[in-house]
Design goal:
- Pfam families: LPG_synthase_TM.
- It comes from marine metagenome.
- It is a multi-pass membrane protein.
- Keywords: Cell membrane, Membrane, Transmembrane, Transmembrane helix.
- The chain has 248 residues and is an all-alpha fold.
- It has two domains: 1-157, no CATH class; 160-248, no CATH class.
- The chain has eleven helices and no strands.
- The longest helix is centred in the middle third of the chain and has 29 residues, at 75-103.
- It is globular.
- The two termini are 30 Å apart.
- Mean pLDDT is 79; it is low at 1-22 and 33-37.
Length: 248
C-alpha cells in the first residue's frame, strides 16, 4: 500500500529545518510513505495511461458525445469547484491536527506529542488526501484506516490511538451534518415535504444517536471494564479510549 502516498511523500522530503522535531516527523513520514523512485513512478504513469486507453477501446467511448458535453461545461465554475474541493483538505487537516494533538495527552512528555505539536497543517492534509486516494481504490473506506495507521506510526502512539482520533472526527462530522440537516429543513417552506426528507432526518438522527451512545459508553466505563478484557487488549483499549475522548 505504499504506492498511493509515494507522490505526496515528495512534499515531506524537505520539511522546515528549524528544529529536529520537524525533521523527525518528515523522516518518519518518509519511512511510512516509502521512497519515490523515478523509474517506478514513470512506469506507474505509463501503466495508468495504458489502462485508460484500453478502457476507452473496450467500452467504445463516444468521443463526439463526450466533446459535446465538455463544451457545455462552465470552465470558470469548474475551476472554482476544483480549487474549493482541494482547499477543503486543508481544513480537514487542521481539524485532525487539533484532534490528534488534544488526544496526545496520553503522554505529554513523549516524543510523539512533540512531533504532533510541531507538525504542520499541510502535513496532516496530505495524510487525509492519501487516505481519500486509498478509499478510491479500496473497499470499506480502508483509506481512513490507512491514514490512522500512518499517524500512529509517525507519532509513536500506536494504531489504536490513531483509530480513536478518527472516531472522534466522525463523531464531530455526524453532529455537524445532523445540525445542518435540521437547519436546512427549517429554511424550507412548510409546503415542501417528502419521504426522502423524512428518511434523511431519521437516518442522520439514528447514526448520531448511535455514535453518541458509543462515545458516552466509553466515557462512563470504568476500570472494571478494562479488567474484563484480555491482557493483550487492555493497552489498545486505553489508547483507543484516549484517542476518542481526548480529541474534543
Amino acid at each position: 500500500m505504499k504506492f498511493p502516498t509515494e507522490f505526496i511523500s515528495l512534499f515531506f522530503r524537505r520539511l522546515s529545518k528549524k528544529n529536529d522535531l520537524g525533521s523527525d516527523f518528515a523522516g518518519k513520514q518518509n519511512r511510512v510513505f516509502g521512497t519515490v523512485l523515478p523509474v517506478r513512478t514513470a512506469l506507474t504513469f505509463l501503466g495508468a495511461i495504458f489502462l485508460i486507453f484500453f478502457s476507452f477501446k473496450v467500452f467504445r467511448v463516444d468521443w463526439a458525445s463526450a466533446l459535446d458535453a465538455f463544451k457545455t461545461l462552465d470552465i470558470v465554475k469548474y475551476f472554482i469547484a476544483f480549487i474549493a474541493y482541494y482547499l477543503s483538505f486543508l481544513f480537514r487537516g487542521l481539524r485532525w491536527k487539533i484532534i490528534s494533538f488534544n488526544s496526545s495527552a496520553l503522554d505529554r512528555s513523549s516524543d510523539g506529542d512533540s512531533i504532533l505539536n510541531h507538525a504542520s497543517t499541510f502535513q496532516y492534509s496530505a495524510l487525509v488526501l492519501s487516505g481519500w486516494f486509498v478509499n478510491s481504490v479500496a473497499w470499506l473506506r480502508l483509506g481512513d484506516v490507512y491514514r490512522a495507521y500512518c499517524l500512529g506510526v509517525i507519532s509513536k502512539l500506536g494504531f489504536s490511538w490513531g483509530i480513536g482520533t478518527l472516531v472522534a472526527e466522525r463523531f464531530l462530522d455526524m453532529i455537524i451534518v445532523f445540525l445542518l440537516i435540521l437547519a436546512s429543513l427549517t429554511m424550507l417552506s412548510s409546503g415542501v415535504k417528502g419521504q426522502a426528507l423524512d428518511f434523511l432526518v431519521i437516518f442522520a438522527f439514528i447514526i448520531t444517536a448511535i455514535l453518541t451512545i458509543f462515545v458516552s459508553s466509553l466515557a462512563i466505563a470504568d476500570k472494571r471494564l478494562v479488567s474484563w478484557l484480555p491482557i493483550f487488549l487492555r493497552s489498545h483499549y486505553s489508547k483507543f479510549k484516549i484517542g476518542v475522548l481526548s480529541g474534543f
